[in-house]
Design brief:
There is one protein chain. Helix 11 links the parallel strand 6 and strand 7. This protein has 13 helices and eight strands. The N and C termini lie far apart (62 Å). The radius of gyration is 21 Å and the shape is globular. The chain is of the alpha/beta class. An eight-stranded mixed sheet has the order 1-2-4-3-5-6-7-8, sandwiched between helices. The protein folds into two domains: 123 residues; 232 residues, 3-Layer(aba) Sandwich (Rossmann fold).
Length: 366
């Protein structure tokens, strides 16, 4: 029997509550993951998830939505199935296979996020997930499209061309060409993708009014041994975006995680004219940077370096040595060491550390 609109909406609100709890739990685990404590993380996820997805799947399958909600219902079910896959895949990883399970689970999670984000107008409980708490009162204004704007807003994914590799782009929904907008270039970690890493920046960008450009590396990771390969690709992407949108060329910032952080050193110091500031998160200063440092290239570019004392990929001791070297030869470096963090995703780090630092640079210029 087909449900009334009111009863259907009431049931969906209950589904939203459960999904919101899962999204926040799964995100937090991805930011706190440590290879030495995988079992603990899986126990935490299992305790939070329990029989959530079999129950949700059964509930959504049993629902008979009103005619006007059938397409929405199919998409909500699709998103829920993707999150169920993410949950099961994360829990399935054992020993040396965990890293691949983590990546596969992450991709299923992001697949579900894209479907859910497109439904956000009909999911009022979940709207808070896409914004910083301070921006919630401005939700309606942030979601209101400017009349007459013909360029795409929200998420878009650009295929590779002869000039550049593929990239993902986020443009705030209230974009207008009547003013210029700051832009953050965010580089994924090794074996990552732009359409994945961009999610770690969605809340601050949407809340504060930034465009996001999240490139895909030419290979499985960034071309550290042949920097021009990915540098030229990212330059072409950035020029394409700046030609299409009203970007504040003096408000373009660069950041990257892990291998993306390592490449942030190379790209940021090689192309100092492009960036107002660069932020390296859990990256390593590769020997390929040495020629740039010897020339003093990029000394005028403010640099934030964030590293976890518990990093199990790039030892924090090496980063401390790099900081000492950079400061000794006159670079403008701010270092933040996180005593409890290892090497993982960067939601709260981007929101609470990197974006405020970028915004501090902008306010100093005003």
């Amino acid at each position: 029997m087909e449900l009334t609109e009111e009863k259907y909406v009431e049931t969906v609100r209950q589904v939203e509550d459960k999904l919101l709890h899962f999204l926040r739990t799964f995100e937090k685990l991805q930011e706190e993951i440590h290879l030495g404590r995988v079992g603990e993380a899986q126990v935490r996820l299992r305790e939070a998830g329990g029989e959530l997805f079999p129950a949700l799947s059964a509930e959504l399958t049993a629902l008979s939505p009103p005619q006007s909600r059938q397409e929405f219902h199919a998409k909500l079910s699709e998103a829920t199935a993707a999150f169920a896959e993410a949950y099961a895949t994360f829990l399935s990883g054992k020993g040396q296979q965990f890293a691949q399970a983590f990546l596969d689970g992450r991709r299923a999670f992001c697949r579900g996020l894209y479907v859910l984000y497109n439904l956000r107008a009909q999911l009022p409980v979940l709207r808070q997930y896409w914004l910083l708490p301070s921006a919630l009162p401005a939700l309606a204004a942030l979601e209101t499209r400017t009349p007459g704007v013909e360029v795409p807003v929200g998420f878009s994914h650009k295929p590779g061309t002869d000039a550049h590799k593929q990239y993902s782009l986020y443009v705030p929904e209230n974009y207008t060409p009547e003013r210029t907008w700051p832009l953050i270039v965010c580089l994924h970690g090794g074996y990552g993708r732009g359409d994945d890493y961009i999610w770690t920046w969605l809340r601050p960008a949407k809340s504060k009014g930034y465009l996001l450009l999240s490139p895909k590396s030419a290979g499985p990771t960034w071309s550290v041994l042949n920097p021009p390969l990915d540098i030229r690709s990212i330059q072409a992407m950035l020029e394409e975006v700046c030609t299409t949108y009203a970007v504040d060329r003096k408000g373009v910032y660069l950041t990257g995680l892990s291998d993306g952080g390592t490449f942030t050193y190379l790209l940021g110091l090689s192309c100092t004219e492009l960036f107002a500031g660069i932020a390296v998160i859990a990256g390593e200063m590769h020997p390929m940077v040495d020629p740039l440092l010897r020339r003093g290239q990029g000394k005028g570019v403010p640099m934030l370096i964030v590293h976890g004392a518990q990093d199990f990929i790039f030892d924090v001791a090496f980063t401390r040595q790099s900081i000492t070297l950079l400061q000794k030869v006159g670079y403008n470096v701010t270092y933040q060491e996180l005593p409890d963090w290892g090497h993982a995703y960067t939601y709260s780090i981007n929101e609470q550390r990197v974006l405020p630092w970028f915004e501090g640079l902008a306010s100093n210029e005003d």
